[in-house]
Amino acid sequence: MKKKCLYCGEVLIGRADKKFCNDSCRNNYHHHQNSDQINLIRNINNILKRNRAILKGFNPNGKTTVRKALLDSLGFNYKYFTSTYTTKEGRIYYFVYDQGYLPLENDLYMLVENRDI
Question: Structural domain boundaries of the chain?
Fold first, then answer.
């Protein structure tokens, strides 16, 4: 019984453990196997990049405050961040890479930059 390429079904010639007839079939096979995961990761990375750009745009000097409505109007997504930092007083800063924000009263957010990274 002859082995066939896992992607295109062509009969394989060569090594006994060969699974694909060429690099193109190998790449296409693995791309189709992982495409759902790749798309999920790509979409999350795009959201994180957009969030960071929004924060950086409002915070060129390293520390400022901004209204929630302004972040909302630019499509900031509060569900996606890369890390948190909790102060001794219990305040939680949310960071998108090096750009962070702290929810304050009256729909204000303090924006900070972590320059230690």
Answer: 23-113
